[in-house]
Amino acid sequence: MNVSETQGIYVTPSEVMEYLYCPRFIYFMNCLNIDQYEEQHYKVLKGRTVHEERRRNNPDYVRKKLGCESKASDVYMSSEKYRLKGKVDEILQLNDGTLAPLDYKYAECKEGMYRTHWYQSVLYALLIKDTYQQEVNRGYVCYVRSKSLMKEIEFKESDFIKAIILLKEIVQITQRGFFPKRTPYRVRCLDCCYRNICVR
Ligand code: SF4
Asked: What pTM, to 2 d.p., does this model score?
């Protein structure tokens, strides 16, 4: 796929989460333009509540403990190289010279959710690396409803490679309109809003 074919196509971290749930979501949403009538599976509750909570529960001393020297909030970035765009809650400048994404989740820290949050953090890290051309080797997720528990994620080169492959797959489905494989987890089809139009 050459660059001109993919021009104008930018993937968001939420789309990647949808893709991980079932690749066909991307086909229905981006190729047939059929929106989900239900809440997206990984839509994150943001907005006023979480912003207020994070101010109250996550004061600067928490960031200091992480080695944070300064931060930028609500930073929108887009990467032509990776066809990725998104807004990260905070970018931390750490005292070892690296940058790190910090994402707030208005949720409790639970085992099952962690994988998707891990992927989101890797995607934000890619965006930061490409935008600022600085090293990003770890990220943070703050679980507001678990007393602002801060989870650290260490990134490996293989994590970035995995994320880049996912992005390419999503761009290809969107651009070429091919019908992807379904999720291997058939139980997800039971309450899926596309089940009546999805070939089994
Ligand atoms: S019905 Fe199943 S395979 Fe089809 S889009 Fe929904 S989850 Fe994916």
From this structure: 0.85
